[in-house]
Design brief:
Largest sheet: 6 strands, mixed
Helix content: 25-40%
Shape: globular
Order of helices and strands: HEEEEHEEEEHEHHE
Strand content: 25-35%
Radius of gyration: 15 Å
Structural class: alpha/beta
């Protein structure tokens, strides 16, 4: 089955990375920076935290540096970074709700049009999700998101 033909939710569970037992990089060398959308909004992490209220998102982004707080606005998303607002058109992009950092890595690997996000209720897990993403990148010898998109994978069932 082609990667593009798999439905996102069922395929994430069936997707596994081929681990590199001896990565050529250290965990500290893993770069999780991510350019969001055609506007190329530079994020430190490829994971949005989705809020329903614009004021709350702005407040959270000011309080927690580098956490990309976002609010959906039709076919675009408003992303708040360090209290600043950035509008990103979603034309050609798909928002994907993920359950952990491994699913962030899998979503990024499966399709370059996926934008991983979590609901604000999972905000307390944000740092854990980023740690899981970094470990997945390390174990696949992926120095950055571009390399992760090419990491060897296999699917089951």
């Amino acid at each position: 089955m082609k990667e593009s033909q798999m439905s996102m939710h069922s395929s994430l569970r069936k997707l596994s990375f081929v681990h590199n037992a001896l990565p050529e990089l250290s965990l500290g060398e893993v770069d999780t920076s991510f350019n969001l959308g055609k506007e190329k909004v530079k994020l430190k992490f490829p994971l949005l935290v989705l809020f329903s209220d614009r004021t709350e998102a702005m407040k959270e982004s000011s309080a927690r540096k580098d956490v990309p707080a976002a609010v959906m606005d039709g076919r675009s998303v408003e992303v708040f970074l360090n209290g600043s607002s950035h509008k990103v058109a979603l034309d050609g992009y798909k928002m994907e709700n993920v359950g952990d950092g491994i699913e962030v890595a899998k979503a990024l690997r499966m399709d370059s049009s996926f934008i991983p996000f979590i609901e604000k209720s999972k905000l307390e897990n944000f740092d854990l999700f980023i740690k899981q993403l970094r470990i997945a990148m390390f174990l696949t010898d992926s120095r950055d998101i571009k390399a992760l998109r090419k990491a060897p994978i296999y699917t089951t069932g």
